[in-house]
Amino acid sequence: MIADFLLVANDNYVKYLGICTYSIMHNMCPAVEKVRIFVMDCGITKENKEKLIRQAARFDNAEFRFFNIEQKLNNIVPKVPNNWNRAIYGRLFLTEVLKEYDIKRLIYLDCDLLMERPVTELFTLSLDGKCIAGVPDTDGIHRRTALGISPDCTYINSGVLVIDTERWMKLDVSAKVIDCINSFPEKLVYPDQDAINLILSDEIKLLDLPYNMLWMICERDIAKIRNYSEDFFYTDEQSHRALYHANIYHFAGRDMWAYYGLTPVHEIIFKKYHKLCDWRNEKRYFGSLKNFMLWLMVSCKRLLIGEFRLTRQYLKEDIGG
Which fold has domain 2-287? Predict the structure, then answer.
């Protein structure tokens, strides 16, 4: 089996790309014949590309390929401006990859996540005729309502997408999503994610929670999440399993290189791959005195209640499946 992954980054985000892709190769290379990582290059230096390639060379069956799309990003000019870096639109140009490679199943991953277990099954998973598959977002009901998406549809987090490339091309999804971003009359809060959910509202298959374990689920009480979002339909048992035995942990806007702001689960997973990847010498930071003080308070609390000890214990538990 060949496992094909799509990621997007510019040079400011290359360390996230580095640790993320290391976690992918670490888990996927022993499980498949070959791992191909396609990077939509939004301005990565030659030096950093070479560093990524050297890291991949540590695995016998991993391959990197870069597609420069800096100029193509000029085609996306949101009708209502936002403060997002335009690199977020990079995945919409996956057609550049498909021009050169015959790929039936492609998995898109945000750079701010880490893979902890292989996802080989996603390459053979039936999408039931749908175009993409993803995990429901904790803010789904609010975004779905704001966008006018039918209550019968589920709004997903687009950080992990399983893509049927043939159907994507047949539906001309890239062009439709770009047109939506450029013409939507109101502000899109999460521009690319909102537009993907709006265009493909009835073309989405749901994935199980472990394939996109968001930090907000790790941090909040599950009962509160259910009250906040009726789309969160997972049981306590499913939530517990996903929290401590996820395939993919998503930092979703939380800076994994910052000491403050990570849950115990995400902190432990980050440290594991930080030690292994070629960005191990990249220093972590607090950002401000306020963040340091908050980190100190939270750390003391976690130490007193033994939260890290309990988390490590849960992560090692064998709870089946």
Answer: Spore Coat Polysaccharide Biosynthesis Protein SpsA; Chain A (3.90.550)
